[in-house]
Inverse folding.
């Protein structure tokens, strides 16, 4: 019974994410190592699930270990600045490896056995010549031969495939208008594809978690500025983390809002990252992950969702959508990764002498980390700007929270007349007051 309940609450809690991700374009990149792993089928099941939830999915795979395997009896592979020098022999291996990996992924995505998670999935996969490349040429006197870089992505052709609900599969290979083939870095292709498609997310499945080498703790989120500083401060980071981080920074700088680095060796990591509140990976974004800001009309749905349970518990007075809409300029919100997790309103009186703090709420999962305090501080600054001298609050169950922050018990008669209309005698709220000069 308990497991039933936890399933039901898990499924319900994931529903905001299911709505939020539908019809969004996600580019997911993974190395050739992931394909070699016994658990790769699990990733493919997760890709299939994302596709069935209406996410427009582009997969970019790597082939480094598969190329190395083919070259193992040749002289050691040559790299310069983390890129393979692709001579004629290596190019042959690149072609073989890309073909093989692509076919293996297509086969797994085509599976539909009745007793497997892929039953009834019926996924259509599209691959093609979406990437145009040019040679890197000679750098520091070193000729990269058939190693290339992305010149153009045929985003219209990819979108066409996504419009038909196809999963697009892209190999780290590009073609030049003269018909040459170039070996590309999978991270670079994934970055270029996500930018060209204006994808909502770039997800890099990495070989390890992104941890701070100083204390071993996993980094949950970084802004691009923080990620850049982190790379500067840790020049010895393994390629398996530094390359995805660089790709993340570049994508964010070019307009991708959210880049996720997820340790692919963690079973179900992709689902945990996309459908739970705090995820499991490292999120890189150009703007802070959590932001306290004035509310806009677009936030009303999130505010209503946040306050509904508190209204039911009698902690907050009931408010209609229309009322919040009319007063939206009075509201501030805390947005965390697209979800509203905190809100409050400051309603000033017409004389601009005093105001009432109302609808103060922090989502249950995020209480106790000073978010209420931050909103209160912001409210004081707003009140100061408006020239208000006194702040009131009407509370049934949270008096002490305000008293501990300098509010004093007061009564209904001390409320200025226009604000008295906010008092509902049935709720019998306590009136608290604070001078803020
Ligand atoms: C009140 C509320 C906004 C505080 O948000 P928050 O982000 O948890 O606040 P902070 O982290 O800044 O403060 C946490 C402290 O407040 C205390 N606190 C929380 N609710 C309280 C209450 N009803 N009465 C007294 N103290 C309370 C916590 O115990 C904690 O104190 P501690 O660290 O000493 O244990 C949040 O608890 C909430 O949304 N409550 C439900 C809605 C509500 O009652 N709103 C007020 C309507 S007037």
């Amino acid at each position: 019974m308990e497991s039933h309940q936890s399933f039901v609450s898990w499924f319900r809690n994931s529903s905001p994410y299911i709505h939020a991700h539908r019809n969004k374009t996600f580019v997911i990149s993974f190395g050739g190592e992931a394909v070699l792993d016994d658990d790769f089928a699990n990733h493919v099941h997760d890709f299939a699930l994302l596709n069935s939830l209406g996410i427009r999915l582009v997969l970019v795979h790597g082939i480094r270990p598969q190329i190395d395997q083919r070259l193992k009896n040749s002289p050691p592979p040559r790299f310069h600045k983390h890129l393979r020098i692709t001579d004629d022999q290596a190019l042959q291996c690149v072609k073989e490896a890309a073909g093989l990996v692509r076919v293996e992924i297509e086969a797994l995505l085509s599976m539909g056995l009745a007793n497997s998670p892929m039953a009834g999935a019926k996924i259509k996969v599209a691959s093609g010549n979406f990437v145009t490349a040019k040679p890197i040429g000679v750098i520091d006197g070193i000729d990269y031969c058939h190693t290339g870089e992305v010149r153009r992505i045929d985003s219209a052709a990819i979108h066409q495939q996504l419009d038909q609900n196809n999963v697009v599969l892209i190999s780290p290979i590009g073609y030049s208008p003269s018909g040459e083939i170039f070996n590309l870095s999978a991270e670079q292709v994934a970055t270029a594809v996500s930018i060209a498609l204006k994808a909502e997310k770039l997800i890099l499945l990495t070989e390890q978690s992104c941890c701070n080498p100083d204390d071993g703790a996993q980094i949950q989120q970084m802004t691009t500025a923080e990620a850049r500083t982190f790379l500067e401060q840790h020049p010895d980071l393994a390629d398996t983390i530094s390359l995805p981080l660089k790709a993340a920074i570049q994508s964010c700088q070019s307009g991708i809002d959210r880049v996720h680095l997820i340790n692919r060796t963690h079973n179900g990591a992709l689902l945990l990252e996309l459908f739970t509140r705090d995820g499991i990976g490292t999120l890189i974004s150009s703007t802070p992950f959590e932001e306290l800001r004035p509310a806009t009309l677009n936030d009303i749905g999130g505010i209503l969702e946040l306050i509904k349970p508190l209204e039911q518990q009698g902690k907050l007075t009931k408010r209609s959508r229309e009322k919040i809409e009319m007063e939206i300029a009075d509201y501030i919100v805390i947005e965390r990764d697209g979800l509203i997790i905190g809100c409050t309103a400051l309603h000033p009186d017409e004389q601009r002498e005093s105001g009432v703090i109302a609808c103060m709420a922090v989502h249950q999962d995020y209480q106790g980390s000073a978010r209420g305090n931050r909103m209160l501080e912001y409210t004081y600054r707003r009140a100061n700007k408006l020239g208000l001298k006194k702040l009131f609050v009407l509370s049934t169950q949270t008096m002490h929270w305000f008293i501990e922050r300098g509010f004093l018990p007061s009564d209904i008669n001390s409320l200025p007349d226009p604000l008295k209309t906010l008092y509902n005698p049935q709720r019998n709220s306590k009136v608290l007051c604070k001078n803020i000069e």
